[in-house]
């Protein structure tokens, strides 16, 4: 895997990254990136010391029928980022049901105890939702640290939004926090608007403070952002 310095050097020498539709064989690479970036862009290990369970809970559903219009960014044949999402809540729930055997199989004999504080807190303070009739789709976007700042996030997101709009999906929503400054900049640049915001204590044990949670929405009836 390229480190940040070698990736920057490769870019300055004119190397380009490929953005392509996600394939079933990408599941493990995408799951690893989800885990490597799951704590405000850094590793999820700090709050979830069970990587296989994390991959199964957060990624498997999209590879079991929930996923639609997902893309990955690839550099030198290595997947360095992804955008994944479901066009509506029903398909996502179906994907989760289909992923249930994988989730059960990923339950660790050791490490589960360390995940319980997060799981418990997430159940208590789950993210608010925007109107699912207007914004039925949701998405997740993550890049490895060494791949950030090269327009890959924007390329992935635009490709995803074009496909959603082309399929007649009326709108998309996502949940993020004030800590994700780069993501907020990108979402605002592409026209996402704030539907809900609230302070949440969900992450306080690991961040040392409450954080502002945001639900952002984008209408797609008029097409993807220019
Ligand atoms: C958020 C993320 C996907 C952005 O991808 P990226 O490839 O680094 O960003 P891009 O180079 O495509 O930048 C596109 C736009 O995003 C915004 N942006 C990017 N980096 C930024 C930063 N550090 N601060 C503020 N805005 C930033 C800018 O608006 C930029 O456009 P501009 O340069 O014309 O102003 C990436 O940084 C990432 O994966 N971060 C960690 C995980 C994360 O937060 N995921 C989102 C969870 S909701």
Describe this structure in words.
With 226 residues, this protein is α+β, with helices and mostly antiparallel strands. It has one domain (4-219): Aminopeptidase. Helices cover 38% and strands 22% of the residues. The protein has eight helices and seven strands, in the order H-E-H-H-E-E-H-H-E-H-E-H-E-H-E. It has helices spanning 4-12, 27-37, 51-58, 89-105, 112-124, 152-166, 181-189, 204-207, and strands at residues 18-21, 71-75, 78-86, 137-143, 171-177, 193-200, 211-219. Strands 1-2-3-4-5-7-6 form a seven-stranded mixed β-sheet, sandwiched between helices. Strand 4 (137-143), helix 6 and strand 5 (171-177) form a beta-alpha-beta unit. Helix 2 (27-37) packs across helix 3 (51-58). Bound molecules: coenzyme A. Coenzyme A binds next to strand 4, helix 6 and helix 7.
Defining key terms:
Aminopeptidase; binds coenzyme A; seven-stranded mixed sheet; 226 residues
CATH homology-level superfamily: Gcn5-related N-acetyltransferase (GNAT)
Give the number of helices. 8
Residue share in β-strands: 15-25%
CATH topology: Aminopeptidase
For the sheet with most strands, the description reads: 7 strands, mixed
Kindly, what is the distance between the CA atoms of the first and last residues, rounded to a whole number of angstroms? 34 Å
Tally of structural domains: 1
Compute the number of strand runs.
7
| Rg, Å, rounded | 17 Å
CATH class: Alpha Beta
Strands across the major sheet, in which order?
Answer: 1-2-3-4-5-7-6
Q: Which architecture would the CATH scheme give at its second level? A: 3-Layer(aba) Sandwich
The helicity comes to 25-40%
């Amino acid at each position: 895997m390229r480190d940040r310095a070698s990736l920057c050097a490769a870019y300055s020498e004119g190397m380009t990254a490929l953005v392509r539709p996600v394939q079933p064989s990408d599941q493990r690479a995408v799951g690893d990136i989800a885990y490597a970036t799951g704590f405000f862009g850094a590793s999820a290990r700090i709050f979830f010391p069970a990587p296989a369970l994390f991959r199964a809970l957060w990624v498997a559903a999209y590879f079991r029928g929930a996923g639609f219009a997902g893309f990955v960014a690839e550099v030198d044949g290595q997947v360095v980022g992804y955008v994944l999402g479901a066009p509506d809540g029903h398909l996502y729930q179906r994907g989760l049901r289909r992923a249930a055997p994988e989730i059960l199989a990923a339950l660790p004999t050791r490490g589960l105890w360390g995940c319980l504080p997060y799981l418990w807190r997430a159940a208590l303070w789950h993210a608010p939702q925007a109107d699912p009739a207007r914004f039925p789709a949701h998405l997740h976007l993550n890049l490895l640290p060494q791949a950030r700042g090269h327009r890959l996030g924007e390329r992935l997101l635009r490709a995803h939004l074009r496909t959603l709009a082309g399929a007649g999906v009326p709108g998309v929503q996502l949940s993020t926090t004030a800590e994700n400054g780069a993501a907020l900049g990108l979402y605002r640049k592409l026209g996402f608007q704030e539907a809900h915001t609230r302070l949440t204590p969900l992450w306080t044990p690991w961040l040392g403070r409450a954080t502002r949670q945001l639900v952002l929405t984008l209408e797609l009836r008029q097409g993807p952002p220019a």
